Amino acid sequence: MRFLNQTKTLSAVLLLVMLTTPARDARGETSAPPKAPKAWSFEVQLYALAPWIQGDAELGYERKRLIGGTHQGSIAGDVDITPGDILANFNMAGFGHVDVHHRSGWGLWLDYMFMDLDADPDLGSRILQIDSVGLYQGIFEAFVTHRVPLGRHGYVDCFGGVRWWHNVLKAKATIDILEIIDKTKSWKRTIDWFDPVIGAQWIVPISEHWSTKLRGDIGGFGIESHFTSAVEAGLLYDITEHWRLDMRFKALWVNYEEGDVGTRNRFVYDTVSFGPTIGIIYRF
Fold first, then answer.
1. Of 57-66, 89-98, 179-188, highest mean pLDDT
2. Does pTM surpass 0.70?
3. Strand partners, 20
């Protein structure tokens, strides 16, 4: 009986030592406790895209009559712009994205992209010769996000916010009437609107370095534009702990209309922009 009591006492002491002794790895070194997640994490991305833009557009105008007064109307046409067209008429462009995430699950996305294009269309007639046209298009997104973990199936970021469209249209034309009046005139018009947007993004790890990415959103709802939506599908590759490669295909729709038909305030922009996108992400 005394032997059994001593054995129980020794077992209790050994168990207490095992529970209070730090774990050691295969080399006999004490392993560090797991790191607590940071309160905040950040991602900064620069990216490039090669878009096609297709759809319909209409722009109103006003011009003076020779005998007094003014005439209002609109010019409508198909939009069919390729990456080659953009490269040939390229002035400046920029594309950037910032993702801020808190361990509570809440976060913020900011994304801005713009293109500044000029072209010499060589269009017109004996009376009106269009010398140059220009387009500046900027799209800014600000979304509040909430992350829902899905275990081994990754996580879903639900988001909602606004998409701001900023378009500046420019044109220069020469008016030649009976070879007597030769006048150059410039036009410029700025159109802005905000669209409410809701959506979700799903990221799923498929290996140690690779993950898949799916995103979709919808907005507009007739508040300013009739409709807007974006869809993305692609892959993420973790180069290091801090650097990540983002490769995806993106499509962005918008259907916006303002002004009455046949007036100078008329503007219609019903297009889809789509193409491959590649970016580099820094995480900290």
1. 89-98
2. yes
3. none
